[in-house]
Amino acid sequence: MVRVRGRRWKVLGALALLLVLAVIALSLWEPIGTYRAAPPPAGRYDVRIVRDRFGVPHIFGTRDEDVAYGLAYAHAEDDFGTLEEVMAMTRGRLGALTGQSGAATDYVAALLDVRATVDRDYLKQPADVRALLDAYAAGLNRYVEKHPGEARLAGLFPIDGKDVAAGFVLRSPFFFGLDTVLEALVKNEEMRPERGAPLHDAPNVTPAGPAEIEKGSNAFAVAPSRSADGATRLVSNAHQPWTGGVAWYEAVVHSREGWDFAGALFPGSPFPLLGHNRTLGWTNTVNRPDLIDVYKLRLNEAGDRYLFDGKWLPLQSRRIWLKVDMGPAVLPVPRTIYRSVHGPVIVNNKGAFAIRYAGADQLKMIEQYFRLNKARSFAEWQGAMAIQGVPATNFIYADAAGNIALFYNGLFPERRPGFAWDKLLPGDRSDALWTRSLPFDRVPRLVNPASGYLINANNTPFQAAGPGDELQPSAFSPLLGIETDFTNRGLRSIELMEADSSISEAELERIKYDTAFSRRSYAGSWLRRIAALELSGDPGLREAQALIAGWDWTLEGRGRADALALLVMRPANRQHYRRLAPPDPREELEKAAAHLREHWGRLDPPLGAVLRLRRGKTDLPLDGGPDVLRAAPLWDLEKDGRAKVRHGDSFIMFVSWDRAGRVRSRSMQPFGASSRPGSPHYADQAPLFVRHQLKPVLFDPTMLRGNVEREYRP
Questions:
Q1: 651 domain-assigned
Q2: Containing domain of residue 638, as a range?
Q3: Model pTM greater than 0.90?
């Protein structure tokens, strides 16, 4: 008996040893078996970083590439954790860092063949663009070299310029809805007829990581003819997640090669993506033209060929291994990805579906953004736009010469008439397969309208300049798939601009921070549905209904009904924006009332008690809400019942050029320049943000005198 027990213990010990060895092997295989980049070409970078009193980096370099090097280093000082995740994403290793959500992004990167696009096109980029990308990579490598203990993923660094470029290729199509199409197909869901929009709710297959890319932003441009003092004004009011891979980072850059720019960028970008230089500026808002087509393939019985123009072509397939962090080890998870002549293919329970989308398989968006940064006139800026690398998003422009413009930018497919392009397309016909985008002169635009102003708030481009000055739908082919959606923000912007024939800077600020719903928006029908509810048998809900009936349609934080209205308007906005049927009014009223009674014991707590800006020890009241110009559309309900905002008004910038063409700008972020809890700039802008205040952008280097926190060379 003793011998038997001894043998059992030996067997158990051997099994335990094997288990330990397996865990060690699984923890080591991932970094050993991954691609390692050669460091960028060796070079010396002449760069100086100056931090102003808000911690915003001002990068000074002899060459443009010096500036890119310094920008990467400064950003890593403030948010290396996010930058590491972005670089892991470009290598297909995000799952090894963040688990299943990251692995979903890695799957998409492989499906879209991002690395193949970069490997094919990188050397075709202009030399100055490649130098910029390599310098940015070198700046991140330098930071890791000096702070090796911060890197969490073994073998990720050094990175190279190709890794930086891959981030642009992967993220670009997700701003016009590719994520929703992919997720619907992965989940075996039917595609809806409206421009391929899926039946499901919020996407989670997104290169932004855990925080999804939500479609939002406001933009205003005012010409001298409409401004009270003859100035030209531009307001950039992007709505992005407040943290993560698509959160804004503010910077000012100066190069002796003529690159002077103030604005904001995403982690992994070697240049600002919006803002201004001395003579011009622009901002972006997400648009939603129909830029994605889905094809149903006809497969043979074996499922390895598809019919195309009467011939059976091989369905390309490739086995990939996703790397998924499961705690003690990184596990390999096999997946097969497919491709046809159309593009990426997803095979699900309903068949094989090929996807074709605007801007696929190209890197031109990188050169386009850099050329926009360095443009000095409207003509030069339009020349950069004509590169046609950015596949979507509106561009709202203004300059020192008094020009204002809206470009409904998109790489519109050159489609043939005769197909229902907004529905599922036949995958067996070449005449249903477009191969080119329309030229830049076909892109809808509105330049210097007589009204003297332009707005966009993720609404149709046919509502941008006020009555009598709008683009006409009849002037554009329906094959472009131009959106016709109205947002409350768009309607409200037009109402406020039309009510003011001479707009001062202060009046433009009041418009931007407006918290009202237009009575012409979907809010009207939604509130009528709530008012029509028969609630005679439920006194508690009847009280909530009466409170909403007396609401003043604003979320400024002064009315008794504001908190209740905040909670009931969010689901209505969500459904409206996603082109879905309205939610059940009784159910939403019931949920909102129950939440307020549970946590406050009443239906009418102050809005600021419910809606909060929270970071570390900072906990401040907010106004605004979903689809108002003071945007706070997404939040997390925390244990104490408060709504912690995570997405909405993010980087705000007011730019003006006076009559003499001199530029001045002010900006604000919800938190601060740094994502490090120990930094004094972790949340130092938050008190100003909640009070609708702006800080000066110290764009001219002379303005830094007396405002420098520190100065150094990396």
A1: yes
A2: 522-712
A3: yes
Give the tens place of pLDDT for each residue, 421-474: 999 999 999 999 999 999 999 999 999 999 999 999 999 999 999 999 999 999
> What CATH number is associated with residue 457?
3.60.20.10
* Euclidean distance between CA atoms 308 and 299, whole angstroms: 10
pLDDT at 206 over 90: no
Shared domain check, 235 and 382:
yes
C-alpha distances (whole Å) from 155 to each of 35, 94, 126, 147, 416 are 9, 13, 29, 15, 48
Number of folded domains in the chain? 3
**Signed CA dihedral, 159, 163, 165, 170: sign only:** negative
Boundary of a domain, candidates 456, 481, 512 = 512
Task: Please name the residue that has the structure tokens 């300049």.
Answer: 465
Whether 584 and 490 share a structural domain = no
Whether residue 567 is found in the same domain as residue 689: yes
Does one domain contain both 566 and 463?
no
Best CA proximity match to 348, nearest among 184, 230, 495, 480: 184
Q: How confident is the model at residue 43 (pLDDT cuts 50, 70, 90)?
A: confident
pLDDT digit string (tens) for 376-385?
A: 999 999 999 9
Q: Which residue(s) pair with 356 in the sheet?
A: 293
Residue 391 to residue 291: CA distance in whole angstroms: 8
The H or E element containing residue 90 is helix 64-90
| 618 and 670 housed in the same domain | yes
Can you list the alpha helix ranges (DSSP code H) found in 306-385?
364-374, 378-385
User: For position 588, which CATH number holds?
Assistant: 1.10.1400
Q: Is the pLDDT of residue 279 over 50?
A: yes
CA–CA separation, 577 vs 130, rounded Å? 39
Q: Give dist(CA 613, CA 629) in Å, integer.
A: 17
Strand partners, 643: 611, 637
16 Cβ neighbours under 8 A, 6+ residues apart: none
Given 512, 542, 573, the domain boundary residue is: 512
Could you tell me the CA-to-CA distances from 70 to 57, 495, 636 in Å, in that order?
A: 9, 44, 35
What is the predicted pLDDT for the residue at 40? 74
Query: Does a cis peptide bond (omega within 30 degrees of 0) precede residue 158?
Result: yes
Q: Are residues 508 and 527 in the same domain?
A: no
d(CA 198, CA 705): 54
Residue with tokens 């293919």: 345
309 to 304, 312, 429, 430: CA distances (angstroms): 17, 8, 5, 6
